[in-house]
User: Which sequence fits this backbone?
């Protein structure tokens, strides 16, 4: 598909979900946007290979047309995107991001279901380890920070139990103590007997309709119940439904809008790994790996390395750490690697990664160990400069902290 053909589509400047179709009318890729017009236009820029990667460049070459569905908010676009990806399983969505790094929302199968988030594959096994069974699964959601913001908004509209809520209502009509989330209105309070199983299941059903992008059906259901409650002169309950309807029609998702706009312009959707070495005059040397995904530190994937041969050789130590890292194919591979140092460290890292399609950059520091400039491909630096510096700074902090901890304990390899 060519940029000239894009002009004929006249995409709207509003939130929604877009679909790239191939020559056999198959869906190649599904995405969501704050502005359909701006997001789809970004796929036809001259720097696409740097901001999106070679896989999506290939997808654009195969696409013959684009379709779209508008939504009233970015939150609804996010829900619809995940639902459509799960339904259609487009080839380039599955190849664009390793499923191990995606997030899923699970509604548990119990009397008062919880909403919990699980990352990666093996969902049923992970649920079993937590002692749950699934009633429904939604996702994939590739960006954890975006999902967290979305769940905050949804929970204000439809309060629900989460994984931290461990208490059920006491038997024989005795109410338990309300949890903290119930006290602040984020949980309907089954722990305190504030809601029956039947009413709570209604709430869960509404959440499911929202996750499935069925807002029209959801609003009709709420309006029907509001009228029924008013007819029964249950005005207080009817007023609560009225407030829920208002919240649905005036979704406050500025945080999601901001994140989506930043992602459109910075393409900050890659996995970035940063490496640093710490030692004292060549003694007690350690190395670390820090991970930034979606512009945020992912501390669950940080790694520590004790250098096996102490020597005052930062380049040699760096090579050892990276080589050992590559011995772990089960770890997700990065698109960008950040090295602390100059040309020597940069070339050493490039040598180790020479058989990998990975961009390598180096952050050069001044005498105060503050970032002075970045060595490497200018387009990569322009696209992900903020995340590169974030990863480098935390790698230095993590390395120094690990070195000091082991030095204090009496270092042993």
Assistant:
């Amino acid at each position: 598909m060519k940029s000239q053909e894009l002009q004929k589509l006249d995409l709207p400047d509003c939130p929604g979900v877009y679909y790239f179709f191939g020559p056999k009318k198959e869906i190649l890729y599904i995405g969501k946007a704050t502005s359909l017009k701006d997001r789809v236009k970004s796929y036809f820029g001259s720097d696409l290979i740097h901001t999106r990667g070679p896989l999506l460049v290939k997808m654009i070459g195969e696409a013959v047309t684009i379709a779209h569905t508008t939504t009233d908010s970015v939150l609804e676009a996010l829900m619809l995107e995940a639902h459509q990806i799960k339904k259609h399983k487009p080839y380039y969505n599955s190849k664009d991001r390793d499923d191990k790094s995606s997030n899923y929302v699970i509604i548990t199968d119990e009397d008062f279901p919880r909403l919990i988030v699980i990352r990666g594959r093996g969902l049923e096994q992970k649920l079993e380890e937590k002692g749950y069974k699934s009633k429904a699964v939604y996702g994939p959601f590739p960006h954890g920070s975006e999902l967290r913001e979305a769940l905050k908004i949804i929970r204000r509209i439809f309060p629900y139990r989460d994984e931290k809520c461990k208490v059920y209502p006491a038997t024989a009509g005795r109410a338990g103590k309300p949890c903290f989330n119930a006290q602040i209105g984020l949980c309907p309070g089954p722990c305190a007997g504030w809601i029956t199983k039947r009413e709570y299941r209604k709430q869960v059903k509404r959440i499911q309709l929202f996750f499935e992008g069925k807002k029209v059906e959801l609003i009709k259901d709420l309006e029907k119940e509001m009228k029924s409650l008013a007819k029964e002169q249950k005005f207080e309950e009817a007023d609560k439904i009225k407030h829920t309807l208002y919240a649905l029609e005036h979704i406050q998702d500025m945080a999601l809008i901001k994140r989506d706009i930043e992602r459109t312009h910075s393409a900050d959707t890659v996995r970035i790994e940063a490496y640093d070495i710490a030692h004292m005059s060549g003694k007690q040397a350690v190395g670390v790996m820090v991970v930034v995904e979606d512009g945020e530190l992912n501390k669950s994937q940080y790694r520590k390395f004790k250098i096996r041969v102490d020597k005052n050789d930062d380049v040699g130590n760096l090579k050892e750490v990276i080589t050992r890292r590559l011995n772990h194919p089960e770890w997700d591979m990065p698109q960008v690697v950040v090295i602390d140092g100059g040309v020597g460290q940069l070339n050493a890292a490039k040598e180790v990664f020479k058989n990998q399609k990975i961009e390598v950059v180096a952050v050069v520091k001044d005498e105060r160990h503050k970032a002075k400039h970045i060595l490497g491909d200018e387009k990569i630096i322009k696209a992900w400069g903020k995340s590169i510096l974030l990863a480098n700074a935390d790698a230095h902090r993590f390395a120094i902290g690990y070195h000091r901890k082991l030095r204090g304990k009496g270092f042993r390899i």
Observations:
- Residues 378-409 form the longest helix (32 residues).
- The radius of gyration is 25 Å.
